[in-house]
Design brief:
Distance between the termini of chain A: 26 Å
Strand order of the largest sheet of chain A: 2-10-9-8-5-3-4
Oligomer: homodimer
Shape of chain A: globular
Largest sheet of chain A: 7 strands, mixed
Structural class of chain A: alpha/beta
Number of helices of chain A: 12
Largest interface: A-B, 58 and 59 residues
Order of helices and strands of chain A: EHHEHEHEHEEEHEEEHHHHEEHEEEH
Strand content of chain A: 15-25%
Radius of gyration of chain A: 20 Å
């Protein structure tokens, strides 16, 4: 297999120190050694989410993580609002319907920003709204919700609202304050800012969220109650992906020692540099309110599909295209983890070559 | 962390060549390179299950895999039989109830063998049995179901019965013939005979099983329909655990080159040697019909809990204890993957020391 620089907004390249951690001999999970290890990992997760509340982890992709959160926090017939302006937020609306929830789908054009007053107006049309699902950084469009403002506005009027956040491409890459912003449940996945293979998700949960969880049954694999209950005892209800947890420990240790503010700033500068350069090249940023985690863009003078092929085959830079209705219309580049400002510059240089046909 | 030889029946030690494969640079999954790779992995899975039918894989633990199979193949109100003689088969009965299935729980004493005529008698008391869940090798007791005979007896009388097999500690370690035995759905997990980190499950499905699957929705993460549908196009519906799939490819390549019959024989000899030696030492084998994948045993002259601690702390050999009601009553040792006859002999030597107080 040819090695290409992965600049897709997940999966991201995995640093060597993570691979080395994954390759450590497996330890058994029903041991005090595992529990001491998992305790440290959970404390790293708390740092990542900026919370003193509850954290736990589970095997699965980011999609699975949000589904588990929705399944565990809401019951059939509960009324929830989904702020939907991209492929992933669309998925949470679809999944809510599948669960038998009464979903109000605040569907907006993909890439468009959503304001708190639009959310509050939507709540007013609902009978007894129980919760809301917000996608902080929408990976399909590169769009951002101003979560601090949004959560504050909601909490101000609805003190008991369950606020669920898809933080899959936000935690560990852009500012996120679980406790301060009074979020109830946030989900992050391993294959984004955590620079690990896909396979693990981590959750943060407020007391309000914890009280909402129902102890259905040990065999209910999607039930966060089980995972949280076991996480309090520093363990897993089922066989944990020990090797993957070793990888996550190495990555979160690294993030902790680098410190979040420094990483947030690095991501911000890389994103800002990239956006400005795209505009200078005559290109456009797709999202109305762009997230710093990734940039979705297009260059009117280039066919997006051909551009993506050229970047990969001629320059060894693998970006993502658009998903669903955005296929062929946008390119997406990550600014997370090892996809730093240098990687962004390599892409800008390649695009310059393509635009000016330097051959 | 101290390195101990892991002889637990999952997780198992991971060979270096698997770690090296996991550490390869991640490739993006929406590419022809990934699809060519995944196609080869699926063909390795076919070899493992001994099938020409359908295979697919999913993130998760073995428990999750069996749950997904039950969720996808049966609908609420379907009548199913669960052959239950250990902790894991008990879990499938519990989960069936949770799904709203009409579960006939053929509950037998843990460790006791179950005969085809018992299963057929149970079917006769049911109205319109749709399916049966069999745990081929019960990891909690070391017990085996004679799957060839059982499946033949069921199929002979019930040609349309959906036969679901928990093959988590059987595929890749003891003889298993999906097509020949006319199984409809079998589940194997990565952290057993496949010598990989926990995190991935693979499924084999018959045409009968495929026709039973309902296309609920893309967002229904537990729906095998989605995974099978995508596997036919050599891809995943969501972000796959690419690094873990690299590891599985390395392990299954290895199994293929060693050949299954050779591995089955090696496992059989290791298990037979271990069982005979335990009996020579005055010990007893727990299961009435023991599986070759692992041995559950106890030695009346030794306290099991103390024995397990001594094995680990003095001899560096980590075995498992009993689960649930068997806690403190049995020890369990793996004969899968790298837990070979040499590892078994190390354990027998240590037990000899413990019994004869050689100090």
């Amino acid at each position: 297999m040819k090695n290409t620089l992965l600049l897709t907004p997940g999966p991201v390249p995995i640093p060597n120190f993570v691979h080395e951690a994954i390759a450590k001999p497996v330890i058994h999970h029903r041991t005090s050694v595992f529990e001491a290890f998992y305790d440290e990992l959970l404390s790293n997760f708390k740092y990542l989410f900026q919370t003193e509340k509850y954290v736990c982890s589970m095997m699965g992709s980011g999609t699975y993580g949000v589904e588990v959160a929705m399944y565990s926090l809401f019951r059939p017939e509960n009324e929830i609002l989904v702020v939907n302006n991209g492929k992933f937020s669309q998925r949470w609306a679809d999944y809510g319907n599948l669960l038998g929830l009464k979903v109000t789908d605040l569907g907006k054009e993909w890439g468009r920003g959503v304001e708190p007053n639009e959310v509050l107006e939507a709540f007013e049309k609902m009978k007894t709204p129980k919760g809301v699902v917000l996608t902080h950084s929408e990976t399909s469009t590169g769009g951002l919700i101003d979560l601090e403002e949004m959560a504050f506005s909601i909490r101000h009027i609805y003190p008991e609202m369950i606020i669920v956040v898809d933080a899959i491409t936000s935690v560990g890459t852009i500012p996120f304050y679980f406790d301060e912003w009074q979020i109830d449940c946030a989900v992050v996945a391993s294959q984004k800012a955590l620079m690990n293979p896909a396979g693990t998700v981590a959750f943060a949960l407020s007391e309000r969220a914890e009280q909402t969880l129902i102890n259905t049954h040990e065999a209910d694999f999607r039930n966060l109650y089980n995972f949280l209950h076991w996480a309090k005892r520093k363990n897993y209800p089922y066989t944990p992906p020990v090797s993957l947890l070793f990888g996550l420990k190495a990555a979160t240790d690294h993030i902790k020692s680098e410190t979040l503010p420094k990483i947030w700033n690095k991501t911000h500068l890389a994103a800002k540099y990239f956006r400005n350069s795209i505009i200078e090249l005559g290109g456009e940023i797709f999202a109305e309110k762009p997230s710093d985690s990734l940039t979705a863009f297009f260059i009117p003078s280039l066919n997006t599909t051909i551009m993506l092929n050229e970047l990969e085959n001629t320059f060894g830079l693998k970006l993502s295209g658009g998903q669903g209705e955005l296929k062929g219309k946008i390119a997406r580049i990550s600014h997370m983890g090892m996809a730093d400002i240098k990687a962004g510059r390599a892409c800008i240089n390649a695009l310059t070559d393509l635009i000016y046909c330097i051959d």
